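DM from R.C. (forwarded with permission)

"hey, sorry to bug you on a friday — could you get me a structure for this? deadline for the figure draft is monday and I only need the backbone to look sensible"
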Amino acid sequence: MKFVSFYLFLFTFSFSLFAGEEGGWHSSGGELFKDAHNPWFVKNTNTIKYCFEHDQSSFSANRATVELEISKAFNYWQKEFEKSSVSNAVGTFNLGSQRIEQVSCGVETDIVFKFGYGTLTKKEIVHLVKPEKYIGVTIRKEYDPESLKGQGIIYISSDKGVHRYENPDGNLISFAWKNSKLLLFALIHELGHVYGIPHSGNGVMSQIFLDQLLNKYLVESFLKLPLESFLQPNTSISSCNLERKIKTFVFNLSPNENCIRIDVKKNGDYNLFAVNDKKETRLIGFLKGIYPELWDVNSRPASILQITKKQMVFTPKQTGFRNFMYGPVSLDQGYRGTLMINNSLPRAVYLKVRSNSFAIYGEYKKKTQPLFIMQSPLSILLLKEPIL
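My reply, with the result:
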């Protein structure tokens, strides 16, 4: 049996479901979410069927652009989940294994993407109260606790016309969806909620992400940002933020080599390459003997599945006889290893690896200091106050 839940993953401007705009009671922490944050699809769903509706009069991006960016957003999350599979360990589940199929909108459609105010039904407008308060919102309308499957909509607000997203302080850009990259960022954020990922961290799933995305003082920076990883680091990492003496005396780079690229090998070791001004590469060494430091583990599941005895998908052995299961993990781990640079003695180092950042610490001039840092441009941007 299915239950209508109309659960909201929302993003608003200073708007909360728990407190009115004029102030009032507010509580936080310790809530019984039950299945409210569950992903809509787990292993028993083979195909995710989606469609989209488009209000051309109130939405700057055309239908072809919308269709393409939806596909890119699904592809982003599937690649992320592929990198962070939990290998069917007891009490864990994987995400993103489904085939994605675009269909005509109907009762069997799993996700309806709605672009612009004119696509909303009267019931959806009543539920949202004032759709203009949202840049994007994900609404789960139905959820079956037996099959652990949900259905609902992703709504991206109008950017023109009388029902465009609110901009009371004038800090948001107009006609945002003319730029397909901004639309892609918004879709990735909302689709993350479909996969059970709540607002978290300071990256693409940050609570302030959509507000900052359209901020007129930050938007140019967003347009230059690459799509970065949310769960596991990419297999190739680069940085040109190298201190001059370390570049010369630790990594033995030549004057025209200002960047280092680090590639992950299948056995868990790393190859290090110097990159010169012409983008030419040269193998300069390795990171070997990598092993995790057990006291420095801050990795956490990006998605949690709350289950009841009604569910028919996982066996008690698979759940570990618990009423919840952990999904793909967002990596935050420390490692010890050995840095081996050509024509230099091996150097003991410490690695700090997160999904969107990578650092190597080692001794130089009798002090432990960072030798290599790749920071997340997106995280740095979201932590900054806009310059007015």
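R.C.: lifesaver. The mean pLDDT is 89.
me: no worries. The first strand starts at residue 3 and ends at 12.
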